[in-house]
Amino acid sequence: MYIPTYQDVQDAHARIKPYIHETPVLTSSFIDTMAGAEIYFKCENFQKAAAFKARGASNAVFGLSDAQAAKGVATHSSGNHGLCLSYAASRRGIPCTVVMPRTAPQAKKDAVRGYGGRVIECEPSTSSREAVFAEVLAETGAEFVHPYNDPRVIAGQATTSRELNAQVAGLTSVIAPIGGGGMVSGTCLTLSTIAPQIKIYAAEPEQADDAYRSFKAGHIIADDAPETVADGLKVPLKDLTWHFVQSHVSDILTVSEDEIVEAMKLIWKRMKIIVEASSAVPLAAILKNPQLFQGQKIGLIVTGGNVDLDKLPWMQG
User: What is the pTM for the complete model shown?
Assistant: First the structure.
């Protein structure tokens, strides 16, 4: 297992610069007052393809040799990684195949196809996803770019916190949502190197809390098919992301479905920006744990904004 270094992060940032945005940091005095803390929202919902995963996908795609690239790339994804890999592949002019749960948001399936990617559907479980994907890989011979357990992907995601640390001085903590752990791992990789005084927290839905349980148990516990409104956070940790999580994360905080939806609505209402449910999980965790964050200067990574506008969670009844 190759563990990426901070040099890999610097190389990734230089490689992907033509294909990504340096995303803005926004604030809300209203939300700060509610939280009793200063929160700096690193808005990856404004990233190319509306998700931070454009960073890791672009690093993987543009790091391929011409011979590797000729066969295209493939992955399995509940949405954002797949559409971001399709985005990066389209920029390089190579094919991309994405295995997606049939229950994945239609907006994310449409986005994969919009970038020229091919969608193959599977059942909404990790076991089905991996079985169908094995068939795709055998058929295409494409380069597998794992959604998160890939050193190229983690180095790309790590550029987010590299930018954030340069944009906001004096952060005391950074919090990001956790599913498979790619963003959190990248955050650990960067901050443990350039700003080790900053505490790193991860936030997770109670209904998909395998990372929380893994963290408490000291080994990976994987759920096969959890159900949560935060569709981007249903996948389990793997060996590479677990390495970073157990080494550098201060704590993993869990929140209920109602708390996620309320935090999502709060961001939409007060900040006037579109974020998906997964991106609201960290704010929900801050508001749920005021004693932990009181008076702090917090970097909050808003991971994406790919939302099905016809199926908003507060419209479900």
Answer: 0.94
